[in-house]
Amino acid sequence: MTRKQWLLSGFVAFTCLVPIAAGAGPIENYSPVTAQRLENPEAGNWMLYRRTYDGQGYSTLDQINTSNVKNLTPVWTFATGVVEGHEAPPIVNNGVMFVATPMGQVIALNAKTGDEYWRYKRQLPDDLFQLHPTSRGVGLWDDKLYLATTDDHVVALDAKTGKVVWDTKVQDYKKGQYMTLMPLVVDGKVIVGGSGGEFGVRGYVAAYDAKDGKELWRTFTIPGEGEPGHDTWQGEDWKNGGGSAWMTGTYDKDAKTIYWGVGNAAPWPGEMHPGDNLYTSSVIALDPNTGKIKTHHQYHQNDSWDWDEVDAPMLVDLQRDGRSIKSLIHPGRDAIFWVLERTPTKINYVAGWPFVSTDVWKGIEPESGKPIVDPAHKPVVGKRVEFCPSLWGGKDWPSAAYSQKTGLVYVPANENFCGGFTGEKIPLKPGELWLGTKPEDIGLKAKPGADHFGELQAWDPTTGKKVWQHNFPKSQLFGSVTATAGDLVFAGGTNDRNFRAFNAKTGELLWEQKTNSGIMGMPISYEVDGTQYIAIQSGWGVDAQRIQDALATNDIGIESNVPQGGVVWVFALKK
Questions:
Q1: Three-state SS across 284-335?
Q2: Integer Cα distance of 361 and 227 in angstroms
Q3: Distances (CA, A) of 256 to 128, 314, 519
Q4: Which runs of consecutive H residues, i.e. helices, occur in 351-406?
Q5: Nearest Cα to Cα of residue 207 among 232, 183, 237, 226
Q6: Which UniProt keywords are given for this protein, alphabetically ordered (predicted)?
Q7: Does 42 show up as a binding residue in the annotation?
Q8: Strands 184-186 and 189-193, sheet pairing
Q9: Which of 194, 218, 274, 327 is deepest in the core (most CB within 10 A)?
Q10: Which CATH number belongs to the domain containing residue 45 in this structure?
Q11: Which among 445, 393, 412, 352 has a CA at the least distance from the CA of 264?
Q12: Structure confidence at residue 440 as a pLDDT band (50, 70, 90)
């Protein structure tokens, strides 16, 4: 792939858009969002990134179940009017749906009928450019909603009208800083983390007052001089060390602790930033009132593979080895399924095992949980090094789910992918890619003889045993999954444009529906007037498209022509 092809494969700059487009609004009856409602959400709503603060991606609705899901049918659709990767879950609050899309757009819809109330379009700068022009949703609080923008602002909108209440600049997009995540709102604090590790930035998590947008605290994920962990960096490496925090965190409401995933170190080859490099490729525990880092666990040290670990761990209470564990569960991009224990002062390693094949790790130190690296598969400067899985890892940012009924974790995994690159010392120029290799040198290849790529896996975290697996022969699996009390698992993520429902206990495919595009977005379930609905955004692009294009060049029968174009799909049982 040439540099031009790399840049054109979705790394686009957007032209200016009008700030507000008229709709049918305003919303007459809106239910204000409180701390109590977020901590104990009603079964029929989906008001957080993974519905609940614990990040389990689980709906307690069961009207749609294994016996009747075959009767699921579309009841309405809504075209968003833009292309590129649609990654946000529709957010539903008592009959009102908020849809965030690429190009800084938020659309308010009647969740029962699909009728539009209002539409907000951000006016984006003409010179805006970033690797991932997308959005993963809006946070809710009181009578407002909050959007983190790709030109690096946090914007508060009036939930009833879509009008801007306040607009706060977070960082400078011209230096490669941008945001794509759904803000996490905790007790009136709008908490965000930045993207841009590919540009040699210093990662952070920051909180803003939900009322007026005033910054309350900012915590850098790369510790500065005099801060704990600074000694894991050498010289000036920490100033541009990466550690982006570009996914929404999870929250333990009882312990008052936020758990936030942190991305890889920059640039990619580890010898260019010697040391363990805290807090890259880690989970950090934050005090929501002050931003202070209470403790951390580093999934892997001195990252050299672009293996972000930004997908926040799920909070699950487990019975394991004869005792109760307040666990953190994280199927990692580094191909390891992590089970950790959260305590008030420390994160303890409990167990870890590969959930896809990898040649990078020789094992895990049993006490510390520190992976043991095979140096033959660790990228270096001046030599091409191959490794498995590829830089997209065993599971990228798309989220796994946990079912409170089955006790299983459902992982959108990718197997039989390998990659490699040649490390190169490249001068840092603000606002330009700083990978430590040439983009055209990055490889993705299928293992010889591979008969499938995507895998939907079901794991028992109490035993470390795989319960079932569904393979996708001609596609990766690049989309979040959601579990429901109807013993169902919903997933998109494949190049055939299908949205699917599986039996959560057995893995049997029970239902599928062709959509307009490939699905990267997160399925949700909600209820209005006694009817359960399943909703998803269909819109292929960004990394899913890049993986698809790279695989198509391998001449293994992979289709790369996946149409783009965003549509909200809503399903219910046929009456």
A1: EEECCCCCCEEEEEECCCCCCCCCCECCCCEEEEEEECCEEEEEEEEECCCC
A2: 30
A3: 37, 15, 34
A4: none
A5: 183
A6: Calcium, Metal-binding, Oxidoreductase, PQQ, Signal
A7: no
A8: antiparallel
A9: 194
A10: 2.140.10.10
A11: 393
A12: confident
Rounded to a whole number of angstroms, the CA Rg of the chain reads 22
- Does the annotation flag 500 for ligand binding? no
pLDDT of residue 24: 72
Query: Which tens digit of pLDDT belongs to each residue from 55-103?
Result: 999 999 999 999 999 999 999 999 999 999 999 999 999 999 999 999 9
- Known binding residue 50? Answer is no
User: What is the tally of structural domains in the chain?
Assistant: 1
Per-residue pLDDT at 12: 36
Contact (CB, 8 A) for 279 and 223: yes
Domain membership of residue 522 as a residue range: 3-573
- Count CB neighbours of 210 within 10 A: 26
122 is in an annotated binding site: no
CA distance 57 to 327: 16
Q: Is the dihedral of CA 515, 70, 493, 252 positive or negative?
A: positive
The answer to whether 565 and 571 are in contact (CB under 8 A) is: no
Q: Is 215 annotated as a binding residue?
A: no
pLDDT above 60: residue 2: no
The pLDDT of residue 552: 76
- The vertex-285 CA angle with 281 and 287, nearest 5°, equals 140
Return the H-helix or E-strand segment holding 283: strand 282-286
**264 among annotated binding-site residues:** yes
Give the pTM. 0.95
Tokens of 234: 């050498």
pLDDT bracket for residue 276 (50, 70, 90): very high
DSSP SS3 for 199: helix
In 14-129, beta strands by DSSP E: 20-21, 58-59, 72-79, 91-93, 96-101, 105-110, 116-121
* Nearest Cα residue to 101 out of 550, 436, 520, 531: 520
Sheet holding 20-21, edge to edge: 20-21, 116-121, 105-110, 96-101, 91-93
Question: In the structure, what pLDDT confidence band is assigned to residue 553 with cuts at 50, 70 and 90?
Answer: confident
User: Quick check: 8 pLDDT over 60?
Assistant: no
306 is catalytic: yes
The catalytically annotated residue of 306, 311, 396, 549 is 306
Percentages helix, strand, coil for the chain (3-state, rounded to 5) are: 10, 40, 55
80: left (phi over 0), alpha (psi -120 to 50) or beta: alpha
Token pair listed for 272: 């260019």
Helices (H) and strands (E) in the chain, counts: 3, 39
